[in-house]
Amino acid sequence: MSYEESVAAHYGRDNIEDQLLAAVRDAGKDPDHFSPADLHGADQLHMGGPAATARVAARAGISAGRRVLDIGSGMGGVARHLAHEFGATVHGVDLTPELVATARSITRRTGLEGSVTFSQGSAVALPFEDSSFDTALMIHVGMNLREKDRVFAEAARVLRPGGVLAVYDIMLLGGDIETYPLPWAETAETSFVQPPLAYTDALEAAGFDVDLEAKTVEEGIAFLEQAVAGDAPVGLDGQAVPNLMAAFRAGILAPVEIYAHRRA
After folding, report:
1. What is the predicted pLDDT for the residue at 233?
2. Which CATH number characterizes residue 107's domain?
3. In whole angstroms, what is the distance from residue 142 CA to residue 22 CA?
4. What is the mean pLDDT of residues 75-104?
5. Which of 10, 41, 56, 203 could cross-link 50 (Cys pair, CB 3.0–4.6 Å)?
6. Would you say residue 238 lies in a domain?
7. Residue 102 is assigned to a structural domain of this protein
């Protein structure tokens, strides 16, 4: 099994859509016709949930009419948020077939299939023509990407000149990761966490100029505290959450945002 197949298997579960629709029913909504906001972030697993999505979108300059690529789109929560709240046209790409199927179904149920679409595929071989997008996002995906240089080169290829790539990942600040599982990996074999400098170096080599770097440690800890208290999004539970919180508090890991634009 390749490492990409191992990553896809880590996220693939047959009951993901059922869990999301159960949350909609519990809120008294119609599971066949509801708003993306009715999921209350249950489909957005990154630190900060929908509030962080809104911040990243604003910093990346996403607005109505922008063509956005969501690399590692998961259940599609970020893509739907960008379409519903910002008016963007979004295409998501993800390795895991079960997540792509769930993303398509939930998008249809929320009436956004005209502005949000999904493909199953790899971040190192994006199925798009050159200069197809205005903006690309990679939110809590890089921890599973071994070849970030290839990913950033692909992002540069499909972005128009001047287009923005926004990266929001868990990154290594110091020390070694000694305790697994973590939300993105059961073992070190599929965990490729790197420091911010490794990201910025790879971005610059791929043809980007870095504009902003920001850490959000306190937000990440608060988000995980809510998860431990039982208010976790779908799939963010178990021992992985306390392990990640301990790494945040020890200064080993932190959520970091990096924004860069493609050079002309």
Report:
1. 59
2. 3.40.50.150
3. 30
4. 97
5. 41
6. no
7. yes
Structure tokens, 9 = 């298997």
Q: Which amino acid is present at 168?
A: Y
Give residue 198's domain range: 3-172+191-217+256-262
| Number of structural domains in the chain | 1
Give pLDDT tens digits for 1-50.
Answer: 687 877 777 777 768 899 899 989 988 999 999 999 999 888 998 999 99
Percent of the chain with pLDDT over 70: 96
User: 């190192």: which residue's tokens?
Assistant: 124
CA distances from 71 to 94, 155, 244 (A): 7, 9, 23
Least confident of 10-14, 61-65, 76-80: 10-14
Contacts of 123 (CB under 8 A, 6+ apart): 71, 72, 93, 95, 138, 141, 145, 151, 154
The mean pLDDT of the chain is 93
User: Is there a domain that residue 247 lies in?
Assistant: no
Tokens of 165: 């790539």
42's CB contacts (< 8 A; 6+ apart) are 19, 20, 23, 77, 233, 234
Q: Which two tokens mark 139?
A: 């939110």
Predicted confidence (pLDDT) per residue in 109-144, tens digit: 999 999 999 999 999 999 999 999 999 999 999 999
Q: In angstroms, how far is CA 209 from the centroid of its own chain?
A: 21
- Six-digit token string for 11: 């996220």
Q: Cα separation of 138 and 96, whole Å?
A: 15
CA angle 78-108-111, nearest 5°?
85
